[in-house]
Amino acid sequence: MFGGNKLKAVTFSYDDGTTQDIRLVELLNKYGLKGTFNLNSEIFAENGKPNNISKTEVKELYKGHEVAVHTVTHPRLELLPSNLISQEITEDKVNLEALSDTIVQGMAYPFGTYNDNVVDICGKAGIKY
User: Fold this and answer.
1) Cα separation, 49 vs 89, whole angstroms
2) Neighbours of 38 (CB within 10 A)
3) pTM of the model
4) pLDDT digit string (tens) for 33-89?
């Protein structure tokens, strides 16, 4: 069941925090829709990515929407040793919670790839889905 005892839900999920999110959030807000934005906490305009939003925009831009982990630097997690997988996920969660002033519970795997080890580490890092 979803909110209001609804049996079905439609989700909108977007990755990487690009400047296109500004217009996208405007449209979602206009039509009363919510989205999930999967962000990399070190891939922002301040870090040499001019097509990405800035860190200072996160809190206000995504207000009322969900911010989720997408790792600090967007690596292929299944190729990394466990300690680096944990660092990428945990650090991103902590950084995004500070930037968004919300609790971060979800994650989108970079490139959509993962293995059992990655899933296990996500759970240990407090990722619920």
Assistant:
1) 21
2) 23
3) 0.92
4) 999 999 999 999 999 999 999 999 999 999 999 999 999 999 999 999 999 999 999
Name the 3-class secondary structure at 38.
strand
> In this structure, are residues 17 and 37 in contact, taking their beta carbons and an 8 Å threshold?
yes
Q: Which pair of tokens denotes residue 123?
A: 């759970």
**Rounded to 5 degrees, what angle do the CA atoms 97, 101, 106 make?**
45
Quick check: 1 pLDDT over 60? no
* DSSP structural state of residue 127: -
What are the backbone dihedrals phi and psi of residue 52, each rounded to the nearest 5 degrees, phi first? -110, 155
Amino acid at 103: I
Q: Containing H/E element for 122?
A: helix 116-124
Is 8 exposed, middle or buried, given 0-12, 13-18 or 19+ CB atoms closer than 10 A? exposed
